[in-house]
Write a structure and sequence with these properties.
By secondary structure, the protein is mainly α.
């Protein structure tokens, strides 16, 4: 318990240093755009790829498990849309991105720590936490809505494709299902959740990477620990946000 409180205190102090006013805005914006490409744009392909297949699988599973004369066929499209919008494109996708983005951030900062690059910045009077971490946090938090929208579109598109390629459900009924009782606020809810999760992913990975002590082995452990902790926090916060925002 004491160790957990100590880690939480270290995290709070690190974030306090991170969220200070940048000394040079031009450098901050330049770094932020680089991080948008590295953390966000480079993650687009995996988001699209996974969303298409998950959307198709959800459609198949729902279709096979609700075959009943009293349940209309368009329910398949309705359930697929709800699952993708409410949970998959925000929570599950962020769990996947915690592995890709989180490990990337933790290993990068950890390597900089063990090679004493962070120490060199501190000696030069630079706020290393602000200089290295803030652009990553801002970049990923502001780009995650783009990834979520792509995930929604291609997830629903995956279900559309499987309906077109097979006879599980007709295209007309699937389209009716994804339009039935649609609530636009679910999109905003999903985007807001994903932005919170994006902050958790980058800040947690930054904490573990920034505080690495040792060598290459410890960098690997920090990367693993960041992914595990991010995943646990995402699931816990998802429960709280769902109750607060939809309860």
């Amino acid at each position: 318990m004491i160790k957990a409180l100590q880690k939480f205190g270290e995290y709070v102090l690190l974030m306090y240093r991170t969220f200070s006013i940048p000394e040079r805005w031009s450098v901050f914006f330049r770094q932020t755009f680089k991080e948008i490409y590295k953390l966000g744009v480079d993650s687009l392909w995996i988001v699209v790829f996974i969303s298409v297949f998950i959307g198709a699988v959800i459609t198949i599973q729902v279709s096979l498990n609700i075959q009943s004369p009293i349940i209309p066929d368009f329910t398949v499209g309705y359930i697929a849309r709800e699952v993708i919008l409410l949970e998959f494109s925000s929570s599950i996708m962020c769990l996947i991105l915690a592995g890709k983005v989180g490990s990337n951030v933790a290993s990068e900062l950890g390597t900089m720590r063990v090679t004493e690059q962070i120490d060199a910045l501190e000696i030069m009077g630079v706020n290393s936490a602000n200089f290295l971490i803030l652009p990553k946090v801002v970049a990923f938090v502001f780009f995650i809505p783009v990834l979520v929208i792509f995930s929604m579109v291609f997830g629903i598109g995956g279900g559309y494709f499987i309906g077109w390629a097979t006879d599980i459900i007709t295209i007309a009924k699937y389209e009716y299902g994804i339009q039935y009782w649609f609530q636009p606020r679910y999109i905003g809810y999903s985007i807001m959740k994903s932005m919170v999760f994006a902050y958790i992913i980058v800040s947690t990975a930054s904490y573990y990477g920034y505080n690495v002590k040792g060598g290459a082995l410890q960098v690997g452990k920090a990367s693993t620990n960041s992914v595990v902790m991010s995943s646990v926090l995402i699931l816990a916060v998802d429960l709280v946000l769902t109750q607060l925002m939809l309860g």
